[in-house]
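User: My collaborator and I are trying to settle a disagreement about how two of our proteins should look. Neither of us wants to argue from intuition anymore, so we agreed to look at predicted structures for both before our next call. Could you fold the first one, then the second, and keep them clearly separated?

Assistant: That sounds like a sensible way to settle it. I'll keep them separate. The first protein:
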Amino acid sequence: MAIEYPFGGNVSRRVLPLQDYAAIGDGRSVALIGRDGSIGWWCVPNLDSEPLFDSLLDEKAGGVFTLQPKGPFASKHVYRKDSNVLETTFTTETGVVRVTDSLNSSLAGRLPWCELARRIEVLSGAVTLSLSLVCGTRDQTASPWLQPNCNGTIFHVGPVLGMLRTSDNVHITEQGDRGILGEAALARGERALIAVVAGEDQPIGIPSTKDIDRRIDVSDTAWRAWAQGLHYDGPYADWVRRSALILKLLLFSPSGAIAAAATTSLPEKIGGKKNYDYRYAWVRDASYTLHAFLWLGQIPESQAAVAWLLARLGEAGAKVCFRMDGTPVPPVQEKGLPGYQKSYPVVTGNAAGTQNQHGVYGDIFEAVSLFVASGNILDQKSAVILASLADECADRWRQPDSGMWELEETRHYTMSKVSAWQALNRAVELAEKGHISASCAPRWIRERDRIATWVNENCWSESLSAYTFYPGTVRLDASLALAVRFGFPDRERLAATCEAIHKKLGQGPLLYRYTGAEKEEGAFLACSFWLAEAYATLGRRQQADALIRETLKVLPQDIGILGEQIDVKTNDFLGNMPQGLSHLALIHAVMSLDSRR
């Protein structure tokens, strides 16, 4: 659809299916790039900042940075091997051109500014590309404006300022306060560069286009050097390595926190209301990331995850999630954007920031147990904090909570009780091995055993041959497959629960989160991998391997990015992306099949 922008000129734009977007990042922010060359999401300077480009949530008036051939084209995109540098190849009637996209870093690490670089190379024939940079309005709270000076044309969007840098063979055809239009007519062997250099409330050192272009390859080298340390080369190596690289994208280098996803408000059902902001750091994801990176041999990232986790616990206690800088998650606030495919509301903030979830205790103690089991040590302050949290879990496990799925109605969710059991079991193990004080361990043992008895007396259904979502219901919860990993007693009942989950919540290899979820959302990708992991841990390795393979067949095969959910009818992604939990679940499923585990 062609629309007229406030500064003039017609530019084609459309919102693509979510699986047609790839992600690039620099350890601080993440940009989503469509197969058509449009960058429809980029928050500057941080992952949880206001977006500079947000056409993904506002097709008509949102900010976007598009670079594509004029006229009809076919396109495909692929990451460079073991890298988060992206290459998109456009095939036109007159030639073939490749665009290489990178959020750049330097040899010394992250740059003091954001540098989004786009290199153009004509591979055959001749191609004319159109450029369109349109700044967003930060949800109508800022009015973009351009300021020409002797060093170039600067754009301002509230506290964000930046500059469009281009090589000499890119011609600017029109510019105004809202953005810039241009084009580049190139023949085989010719190259061009287009980049945005930006920051927030800071002076910016503007690099030359040659330096920006060079840093694309520097960044690629850095990604590949990091990926060389991934210690897995089994049958799922491509998926595992890509998942690790995506998790590295979501790791916020200034603090060590890992974001649940890079976006907000992408819907769990088109036209539905289940739209959430996932640009925050969940304790659960930190725990799972620690486990995955330890297995893959990435010790610095493991250290960063556990250090971030213990620091937050010391400051705020057992909270479910935090902002990327460690401060509290803000309350939910609706924004005025129309939403992806008109799926409203668009929100910032997340209610989980103030929820009571017993699962957080299990996540904390699982992370610490894995950390010390790998030969690492705890400081005395952390040991005191952990002992206090074990006491707190022993006191609170009988209370209802919002559960793992962060539901509005508080209940005695079975998985929450299992997580409390997990926490106290790990606390006892830490005390027995001398990592934390053992003075309260006898009480932790008694409460741990009471939880197991309570779950078996109140949450088991003889008619279903399964543990149920909560006492007194026939509903099932797919997250209970994780109880196998946690080592919850009675493997026979756990195996039967897994079979019931697969039968009642499954659509082929895909699973819904819980009974009734199919009415309001897609299948939850992590659940398929959790079930596969459970099968492997129960000794049913062939069944686990088959489920992993069947699930992967459903997914797009080109770039390896996973969304949160998937529409079982269309195989379109749903929910925020890239979804860290989906990639973590895939790694854990493969890990369960690995003989080195």
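The second protein, kept apart from the first:
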Amino acid sequence: MGPSLLTTSKAIDRSSSGKNGNIVRCQPKAFEQLAQNAKMQALTVAGLEKLSLVVDIMGLIWAMALLGGFAKHIATWEFYLISCLLLLESFRLFIVHMMIKLLSFTLYREKKSPYEFEFRDKQPELINLLNILGQGFSGLIAFTSLCFISLRIFVGGWPIFLSENDLRNFAPSLSIFYIIVILTSVIACLSSLLHVLFRSIQKTNDTFQANKLSNSLAAYYDTVYRMSIEDGMGTAAKLELLDFGFTKLASDLKRNIRPLLVRTLNRDIISYLYENGGVAMARNHLNSDNLWKRTVAANLAGFWTEEQKIETQQDLFWSLQDLIFGGGIDAIAALNSLECLARFWSTNYNKGQPHAFLVSKPFENGGSMLDNLVKLVLMPTRSSMLFRIRAFEACCRDARVREHLYQQNARHCKLPMTRQATSSRLNELLVTIVGNHDEQDAHRKGNEEHEDVFSNDTLAQLCIKLAEMISPQSRARIVTKIYAARALMLLLLHGDESRKDRAPSWLKDWVDKAITITQKDSQNQYFLEADIEAAEKVRQWVNLPKLEWSLVRVVNLSGSRRDDRGAELVGEELDRIVSNARCPCEFER
């Protein structure tokens, strides 16, 4: 019947906690053991269900023989009783198999329009409800059959054996039928009770502590049970947890569930995949012809952000390079993973350790991940620009990345350039661009005046590109402008923090127009906590007041909370985010 809650609690590790320390996960070995228990429990219940089916078929065949051979000797009330028992058992089998078929279909899918997102996954709740209803009806019907037979025996007694030649087999045949029905009903009741009990155990193991949305073990149990009924117990017993993990992640993403919520729903199995060959499997799937396999593999790199030594999985990062130039959901997944990894590494790395995105792929001219991301940002196409800028801004939070870009600039300059001199010239270039209302003339004039310093310089091109995105002429979305301004801020302040007050005096009007909230935004836009943080840091940088975020929809995708408001953030939570973003703090490393 699976491990007790005490055993389960010993399997929990706090090595992965949320901001409030309330998200916990099983250690991979412990999770594997829980999954094996879930498989055995599912096989046990499926075995009972198949045994019930076999005995039920025997009962149906025996009833046909009984009614055909002794129809004229059966009392009218007993004839109706046998017929009623047959109908009840047939209806019970119909319910069980229809529920299994129904559970194999998609029951919940997130809205297609981003403005209608619910930011939750109702699938586990729906499946749990259907399981309870299906097994409840099955158990109720089996219990009703037992009650009818018990009433029959109590009122009429057990069939009496007769010695007449014509009727000597009637009582034994009737007795055998009742025994078969009793046996079928007992097995069915036991199967229903164990199914509900075992599935409740998996749900408890999933949601132990505060991770209320996790459903990996319950889904694994359901999959094994369904495969046992439909494809045979031998096939179900061969289902590997590794294959199931990829299949489940693909299923959740196909239903348009937000990737961060998918990560919360499957936190334990994602960690298990990392520790048990999932990295090599993900690399293989990144080259797959199947779109959803590529999408899952691309997302997994970001899901593994907090796993030990993820920064050493260089082959995985190089494999992602081939996806980011695409325009599909797999490219967006790859960019999201780059953002998650870069953001985490910007505050969690050992000094002197090289940045994984700065390592070039050997034996090829493809360059490093950062080089390819910079090329992508500078490309003229507008497709998935938000995800490009957001990934690049996350990289810019890391001092190692900013230093790399500054050093690249120094190598391309005709004159020796210090970090402070580079920062000063970048500010001057930006002042030229912002100070001229004709963006095209400003771009040309800036390049001409600083040709001696910024000839073929990627850093200058990046600053110009980012400035263009937040200009009044830009049609980019407000979220894109937020991260473009944040990346520009990080690049400008890296060389010389004492020059903070120069560029903002020119950028203030642009930032005020680019990063603002209107009545239109409240109707067709939603923001994340990270969006608020980036926006308020930029507005503070140019000495602008904070925005009224209560006018728009702000959501939390971590899945760490579950209350009446769902994913919505309001009131004190918004005030806390804004205060933390604008409080004086040490500049990003």
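Some points you might bring to the call about the second protein. Residues 28-69 form the longest helix (42 residues). Residues 1-23, 441-455, 561-565 have pLDDT under 50 and may be disordered.
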